[in-house]
Design a protein that fits this description.
Layout lengths: L1 E3 L13 E5 L7 H17 L3 E7 L2 H5 L11 H10 L4 E6 L2 H4 L3 H13 L1 E7 L12 H11 L8 E5 L3 E4 L2 E4 L2 H9 L3 H8 L4 E7 L4 H4 L5 E5 L8 E9 L2 E10 L12 E5 L5 H4 L6 E11 L7 H18 L2
Length: 323
């Protein structure tokens, strides 16, 4: 898959035509996957490349910073998911407030039609673009109608309907917002159902304060690539690194037993079956934590012995949740 850091990196000999899909694709959840699969299948049928056009940073972080939006996954994960789905070219367009002020016809002409000459543009049911989101699906269709059919610049518009899933006895339309809500409630299982894969935090293992070793429960401290969306607490998870998969107990919190009024959020993983003495320590390793289920809230204990006893119970509970 070819990756471009914006249309400005496009060479003149890109190709005669393509099928383009446009969106933020935060999380690349099942709804996004359906949209991308539709675009890829359409591109294969036409014998042209499939192009995904997305933005970085997320537009809401620029236009509505007060929301303090956090990406579900990092940019590299998004790239990996697109490649897995068979996308030929990924365009990651830099997004700014100035960029957002373009009229929809200007964006369509200069960033989609001229550079990629699409035979079809595939979008989701709630797609909009351009200044004040004035570029609706109806606008896109009207532009396609103006160009007619059969001409060099003609393109079709294909709209993918909402993708729903049965969740808790009710039909739920899959969206990044709904997934964030589930994660904010600590519901890793339902979030995974909508994502089509477990929610994951990934990053380098950094040196912590070494308390885990002193109490006989060593932990890997993660420096995450993006801020966590999941409710702080204790979770059963899998740790993935060096092409291996280990059961893990993950604590996301502020270590209240040891630290008073700490505002820093720590992500620590204990791997009960991993022998650091034999297999080596994990400092500097890039590690993924795939969340399976929530065990409990983080809380302050009256003594270190009480904390250790609870962690031992948590390990037993967490291992029981993992296959």
């Amino acid at each position: 898959m070819k990756v471009l850091g914006g249309v400005s990196e496009l060479t003149e000999n890109y190709g005669a035509s393509s099928v383009v899909t446009i969106g933020n694709f935060d999380g690349v959840h099942l709804g996004h996957q359906e949209l991308i699969k539709t675009a890829v299948e359409r591109a294969k049928a036409l014998g042209v490349p499939a192009v995904v056009f997305t933005f970085e940073p997320h537009p809401l972080t620029v236009l509505k910073p007060e929301l303090k939006l956090r990406r579900l996954f990092d940019v590299e994960d998004r790239r990996e998911q697109f490649e897995r789905l068979g996308v030929d070219t990924l365009v990651v367009q830099p997004f700014s407030r100035d960029f957002s002020q373009q009229a929809p016809e200007v964006f369509l002409r200069d960033f989609v039609l001229k550079p990629f000459q699409p035979k079809a543009i595939v979008v989701g049911y709630d797609f909009s673009f351009g200044a004040n989101r004035a570029g609706s699906i109806e606008f896109l269709r009207s532009q396609a109608a103006m160009l007619g059919t059969g001409g060099k610049d003609a393109f079709g518009v294909e709209v993918v309907p909402p993708y729903s899933l049965e969740l808790g006895g009710a039909s739920t339309v899959i969206s990044s917002t709904r997934i964030r809500q589930l994660l904010a409630a600590g519901n890793a299982q339902d979030a995974a159902s909508l994502l089509g894969r477990p929610y994951c935090i990934r990053g380098r293992v950094k040196k912590g304060k070494g308390r885990g070793k002193t109490i006989g429960i060593p932990t890997a401290n993660i420096d995450p690539t993006v801020e966590s969306n999941i409710l702080p607490g204790v979770y059963a998870a899998y740790a993935v690194f060096r092409r291996r998969k280990e059961k893990a107990l993950v604590n996301i919190g502020r270590n209240p037993t040891f630290e008073i009024d700490s505002m820093e959020l720590h992500i620590e993983a204990h791997l009960p079956d991993y022998d650091g003495a034999k297999d080596g320590d994990l400092y500097g390793e890039f590690l993924e934590l795939h969340f399976v289920s929530r065990i409990r809230d983080e809380r302050k204990f009256g003594s270190v012995d009480e904390l250790v006893a609870q962690i031992r119970k948590d390990i037993a509970s967490g291992v029981g949740m993992l296959k």
